[in-house]
Amino acid sequence: MSTIGKVCAKCRIELRAKKNGVMVVEMAGFGPCAIHQADLWACPECGMEVVVGFGRKACAYHYEETFEAVMERLRRSDDPVIEFWATQSEKEGQGDAHAG
Ligand SMILES: [Zn+2]
Question: What global pTM score does this model have?
Fold first, then answer.
């Protein structure tokens, strides 16, 4: 197995692991969709950050009874929580009506 990790193509330098086990919220047109745990890496030169290392399954899904409680705990937490959208149109609130 290669020991080379992730490389910033722009700066041509290896990324550094910034935080392991960061909480990531997958957003959909209707709001939070799933909660994942992943790793945050950053470029030491340009500061570009990338979230990688998602598990095969999310920690929690929006249709689960406990989902809202988990979201509430994340909102109150001091730890960074990263939200992401699958597409730019969903991020801009123009997700099509098929979502959900
Ligand atoms: Zn860089």
Answer: 0.83
For ligand 1, the distance from its centroid to the CA atom of residue 52, given in whole angstroms, is: 16
Would you state the pLDDT for residue 100?
A: 47
Question: What residue ranges do the domains of the chain occupy?
Answer: 7-87
Q: How does pLDDT run across 11-34, given as a tens digit for each residue?
A: 999 999 999 999 999 999 889 999
Tokens 């909102």 correspond to 75
d(CA 51, ligand 1 centre) in Å = 14
Half-sphere exposure of 99 (CA within 13 A, CB side): 18
Contact indicator for 56, 68 with CB cutoff of 8 Å: no
Coil, helix or strand at residue 50? strand
Tell me, in angstroms, the distance from the centre of ligand 1 to residue 25's CA: 24
Distance 24 CA to ligand 1 centre (A): 22
Helix (H) or strand (E) holding 67: helix 67-76
Q: Is the pLDDT of residue 63 over 50?
A: yes
